[in-house]
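Memo to structure team: turn this sequence into structure tokens by end of day. - J.P.
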Amino acid sequence: EVNHELIVKAVGQGEQYALGQAGQKAGAIPPEVIASPTKATTENIAPSQPGVVSFFGPAVFALILQHLAVTLTALSLIRERLSGAFEVFRVSPVSALEILLGKYLALGLINLVIGAIVAAVLVLVFHVPFLSGVGPFALTVALLTFASLGLGLLFSIVADSERQAVQLSLLLLLASTFFSGFVLP
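Reply from structure team:
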């Protein structure tokens, strides 16, 4: 409003100058119209008004999927490393890439099935509106799962024990909660 008033005063002063130079044609337009020729009015066109559950439901869904994928992947690889299964893998005719692809496929499938169950509960039980198509939603969930499994692999490399892997995954959960806009804007 302060900027609008300053612009109106500046236009009014400019109008006096223009009247002196160009005659009466410049005086026909009021300074308010020159200062703000349009007026912005907002209208909510969303098909539903989000409540607390509808607003926070998708964020909780993403955090559940991320935490589950990171924790399962990190714990799976650390447990295999600590139990001596890696030595068995080294003498078997399976390459490291095949082991990683197997982990990715198995844990990704588990995560996606749990994601489908949680999404169904959100939509059917908690009545969170599903405003997107199934394709973009599935692609987003698959990309989130893929990225989370990668973080779990990173944590399994960094961590020396199962306890440390769980602590790292909880640290990631806290960071995701606080810095994603879920708690703090």
